[in-house]
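We close this part of the discussion by returning to an individual protein. The sequence in question and its structure tokens are set out directly beneath this paragraph:
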Amino acid sequence: RHTRCSRDWSSDVCSSDLEPVLADPEVTEVMVNAGSGCWVERRGVLEAVPLTLSEREVLLIVERSITPLGLRLDLAAPMVDAATPVVGNAKAEVVRTADELRAELLQGLVQPVLWAKSVQTMAAAGVDTYVEVGPGRVLTGLAAWATSIPPRCRS
């Protein structure tokens, strides 16, 4: 569980719709895209939840989630151009400049990502090794699956 409501959160974010989702002990993950829906994982199965949050609400959730970790979301913080090409999840395209990276990161917070298409873009560019950092091997397995689909069958 990454985010929980508390009394100091704004009533916009801890709406009567969101609070039960976060309080459900069977929910192990909550995925929210501003304006386009919410999904939860229960007992290893993803399911849609009839909940839509605004971009402002999602950014507030992100800020409230990372602050206890000593991190901050600073939309005005300067970024530098990437030293190596980066394939962003929002558009599944290579981005290199600081402005492109900033836009890509923000879009990834508030809209559904194109993860499989991003992996396919990397594979088309010659990437053949994927290293997952974190617990488990979910993304590595999905990368293998995404690149095994013939291009004519990809959407």
Remarks:
- The chain is about 35% helix and 15% strand.
